[in-house]
Amino acid sequence: MQPVLELEATVYTLEQMRAFDAPQIALAGRSNVGKSSLVNALARRKALAKISATPGKTRSINYYRVKPDGFYVVDLPGYGYAKCSKEERQKWAELIERYLSTCPTLKALTVLLDSRLEPQQLDLDLTSFARKSGITLLPVLTKADKCSQRERAERQRQWRDILGGIAPLVVSAKTGMGVDNLWASLRKVVTVGEVRGSALLDPFGSAKRDVPLADAASQGRAAAHPDAAVDAPAPRPASESDATGE
Question: What is the pTM of this model?
């Protein structure tokens, strides 16, 4: 049976964040990576997720119930849109960080990466944070229809090397390329079992960060991309238990 997405809840603040018993797979990516378009492609509907001509419009965490499977695809705010105020960017970064850090039923983080671009610093920061936090990563290259097969293969190779052998899936919301494969991967990861504490490699090898990711992103990282901004979620302190025009 083909899965169906149904919007069940929308959260705008940390206080509104809800707990669900069902497994969850988070969906995160830069503000112009095509996240809303991909949600609509997964849903096989044109307007389940609103698509704006202006990046950075998603200002909430949206919980989509997957039927008949029963798990959630959780759409996180797009990150990295520089035209938002610093305070606003920090607000949504905190919302993303709190969700990733505290969701007890989180099975994996699906991180969307623009297949047209070299690896961006904010994406590197987010994937590093996720892996160091023991969150299973499912990397996905979007907008595959805008690249040649050779370009897509090169981008896969780059991210595979960065992520310790994890090769991204390649998808296009416009043509439907790879959408069925993504659905199969989402369903499969839900059945894997425990996520946190898995033996994941540090994609930066022996390089250790002495400052939170959000702080690191602010130190001259904007040059990596015109939209680069401080929106990568910051890691929790060691004392604690254990970011759209699309």
Answer: 0.74
